[in-house]
Amino acid sequence: MILTVGFDEAGRGPLAGPVCAAAVILKPDFPIEILNDSKKLSEKKRLAAEEIIKKQAYWGIALVDHKKIDEINILQASLLAMRLAWEDLEKKYDLNSMSLKGITDGNFCPDVPFECRAEPKADAKYPCVMAASILAKTCRDRLMLEMDKLYPEYGYARHKGYPTPEHKKICRQIGPSPIQRLTFKY
Q1: How far apart are CA 60 and CA 118, in angstroms?
Q2: For residues 147 and 118, what is the distance between their CA atoms, to the nearest angstrom?
Q3: In the predicted structure, residue 178 carries a pLDDT above the cut 90
């Protein structure tokens, strides 16, 4: 049997913070009815799904910070985060007996040791990609809540670093935060 590794990221569009990616393999008996594109689930449903994914699936997660994003660009940082998420998954579980293929949301695949294909909107079509979407988003959101405690003047709890008028305005008024992506315009 060939199992599919779903990949997705959260945080390509923000002006601050890391990009987070997840890699997920769902077991055959996983309750896929709890899944959807992370953006279509309420926070409460995302958190509930996250808990089940972490208990009942094979998963890995990784972050690439704002400095690396500025150094290599957001696309390359997203692909790096996906590869690192795969490496995290591979370290946690014995996958040697499994035949794998991958699918990622978007137009590009990470550098992984099995066939992978990219498909736009895969996070709305494939349960394993939906699960990766949920893990990436909950991880990044949680981190941005922590950043809000460190840098409350930037309002990260409200906008999670996305380019809202509020976020852009505060950056112009007081300058970039310590987690700002300096190659992004604000």
Answers
A1: 19
A2: 32
A3: yes
Any residues with CB less than 8 A from the CB of 175 and at least 6 apart, and which?
A: none
Give dist(CA 140, CA 66) in Å, integer: 12
pLDDT per position as a tens digit, 71-95: 999 999 999 999 999 999 999 998 8
Where does the pLDDT of residue 130 fall: very low under 50, low under 70, confident under 90, or very high at 90 and above?
very high
Inter-residue contact 126 to 103 (CB < 8 Å): yes
Please, is 168 exposed, middle or buried when counting C-beta atoms within 10 Å of its C-beta (0-12, 13-18, 19+)? middle
Q: At what angle do helices 43-56 and 127-150 cross, to 10 degrees?
A: 120
Question: ∠ at Cα 157 (140, 152), nearest 5°?
Answer: 120
User: With 90 as the cut, is the pLDDT of residue 39 above it?
Assistant: no
d(C-alpha 31, C-alpha 53), whole Å: 9
Q: How confident is the model at residue 2 (pLDDT cuts 50, 70, 90)?
A: confident
Residues 102, 85 contacting (CB under 8 angstroms): no
Strand partners, 25: 5, 58
Whether the CA torsion 133, 136, 139, 141 is positive or negative: it is negative
Integer CA distances (angstroms), 28 to 1, 36, 52, 57, 130, in order: 11, 17, 14, 9, 15
Query: Regarding beta strands 57-64 and 99-105, do their DSSP bridges make them parallel or antiparallel, or are they unpaired?
Result: unpaired
DSSP state of 180: B
Predicted TM-score (pTM) of the model is 0.95
